[in-house]
């Protein structure tokens, strides 16, 4: 049967149909051919050209699958980078945008069978930040472009310079506080006067004395003092009275000055505490990552699928971290070494006084000693032994952010 002419209605209709996106299941990736219906797809599969291509693929299937997987990943990541940059977006939305291209690499030809598996692969390799919600998987592109990384390093240097400036200010304020304490000496506790209980049956009386009486009462003292001066008589009583009154006035003045200095010192210390809280919040936000597994910590396996349930609820020591999200673990009971993803692990909280490692948040990566456990708040207190927070006790550290250390692998000089 002869083909239709170029401008015939049938040819125009065929060209319009070929422009649109057809059924993905009727596409042959090996031959790069799109069929319009199931019958056409069956006819293509039995054709000689398709059979020859399948023989070539069968000679080395891993090579072809690896090649298609690399092409699919590169095209998917390019679409994510160009359309959404570093925004958090649903993985299904990005996939629908990607398959709009008629000549895209189909997922059926890759080593991933589902979109969820591909998204988890991106998260484990550190190419994207992934998280699962009730609406599905969300992904966020991690920009590793040299220019972007240079900008990030510049921002980090700027932040470090600001932190150094704040540290200098903090030391200056601390020096001023110590100097003020040295000048004032030990501060006595203020005396408190208990308030008298109010009796509703007691009569309250007010005495409004005229101010003229004070002037009249003070007049004889002045006359007496003038007479003593005129006749050369030394009034010892008056001198004694004035001597006893002057220290009282001086003590009151010193008490007011001490109170003012104490108020200024309290204000300085309060401002210093607020700055410290802001620095801790910023550091905790920048130090928190999606991966937390670290070397030499003791973890618990919580997935029944690992080893067909043989290692369920078993504890082990992390020997090696694999691609940030995985780890080789030596099980304590059997001595077996298994490779487990961090999603199948949980942290172990030791007894008070045992060495721990902060694996996420403020103080991430530093060693410390467990001080106390707050079971109601699911948090602990840690005395940091290494790093910039050495000697400081961090309170309200969540269970997920701290983990027990293998004491056999801990350096005693670190504590």
UniProtKB/TrEMBL annotation:
What sections of the sequence does the record tag as coiled-coil?
149-183
* InterPro entries registered for this protein in UniProt: C2H2-Znf_KIN17, DNA/RNA-bd_Kin17_WH-like_dom, KIN17-like, KIN17_WH-like_sf, KN17_SH3, KOW_KIN17, Rib_uL2_dom2, Znf_C2H2_sf
Per the UniProt entry, the signal peptide is: none
Quote the cellular component terms of the Gene Ontology held in the record.
nucleus
Q: Which parts of the sequence are annotated with region: Disordered?
A: 236-265
Q: Give the matching PROSITE patterns.
A: ZINC_FINGER_C2H2_1
What keywords were assigned to this record? Coiled coil, Metal-binding, Zinc, Zinc-finger
State if Phosphoprotein is listed as a keyword: no
Q: Which GO terms describe its biological process?
A: DNA damage response; DNA replication
Q: Where is the C2H2-type domain?
A: 28-50
Membrane-crossing ranges are: none
Q: Which domain of life is it from?
A: Eukaryota
Compositionally biased region (Polar residues): 250-262
Gene3D superfamilies, sorted? 2.30.30.140, 2.30.30.30, Classic Zinc Finger, DNA/RNA-binding protein Kin17, conserved domain
Q: Which GO terms describe its molecular function?
A: double-stranded DNA binding; zinc ion binding
Family of the protein in this entry: Belongs to the KIN17 family.
Protein name, please? C2H2-type domain-containing protein
């Amino acid at each position: 049967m002869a083909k239709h002419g170029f401008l015939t209605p049938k040819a125009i209709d065929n060209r319009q149909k070929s422009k649109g996106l057809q059924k993905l299941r009727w596409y042959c990736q090996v031959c790069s051919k799109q069929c319009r219906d199931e019958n056409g797809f069956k006819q293509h599969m039995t054709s000689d050209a398709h059979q020859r291509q399948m023989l070539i693929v069968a000679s080395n299937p891993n090579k072809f699958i690896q090649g298609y997987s690399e092409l699919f990943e590169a095209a998917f990541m390019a679409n994510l980078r160009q359309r959404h940059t570093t925004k958090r977006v649903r993985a299904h939305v990005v996939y629908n945008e990607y398959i709009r291209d008629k000549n895209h690499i189909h997922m059926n030809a890759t080593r991933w069978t589902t979109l969820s598996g591909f998204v988890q692969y991106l998260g484990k390799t550190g190419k994207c930040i992934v998280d699962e919600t009730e609406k599905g998987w969300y992904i966020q592109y991690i920009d590793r472009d040299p220019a972007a990384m240079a900008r990030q390093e510049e921002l980090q240097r700027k932040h470090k310079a600001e932190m150094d400036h704040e540290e200098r200010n903090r030391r200056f304020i601390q020096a001023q506080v110590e100097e003020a304490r040295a000048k004032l000496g030990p501060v006595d506790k203020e005396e408190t006067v208990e308030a008298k209980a109010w009796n509703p049956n007691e009569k309250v009386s007010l005495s409004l004395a005229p101010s003229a009486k004070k002037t009249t009462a003070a007049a004889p003292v002045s006359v007496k003092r003038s007479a003593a001066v005129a006749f050369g008589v030394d009034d010892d009583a008056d001198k004694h009275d004035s001597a006893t009154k002057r220290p009282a006035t001086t003590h009151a003045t010193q008490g007011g000055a001490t109170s003012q200095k104490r108020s200024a010192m309290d204000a300085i210390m309060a401002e210093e505490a607020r700055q410290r809280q802001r620095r801790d919040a910023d550091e905790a936000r920048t130090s928190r990552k999606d991966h937390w597994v670290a070397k030499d910590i003791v973890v618990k396996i919580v997935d029944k699928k690992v080893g067909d349930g043989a290692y369920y609820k078993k504890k082990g020591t992390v020997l090696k971290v694999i691609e940030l999200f995985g780890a080789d673990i030596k099980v304590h009971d059997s001595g077996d070494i298994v490779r487990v993803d961090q999603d199948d692990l949980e942290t172990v909280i030791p007894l008070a006084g045992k060495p721990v490692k902060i694996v996420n948040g403020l103080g991430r990566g530093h060693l410390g000693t467990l001080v106390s456990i707050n079971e109601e708040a699911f948090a602990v207190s840690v005395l940091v032994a290494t790093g910039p927070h050495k000697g400081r006790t961090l309170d309200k550290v969540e269970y997920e952010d701290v983990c027990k250390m293998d004491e056999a692998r801990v350096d005693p000089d670190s504590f």
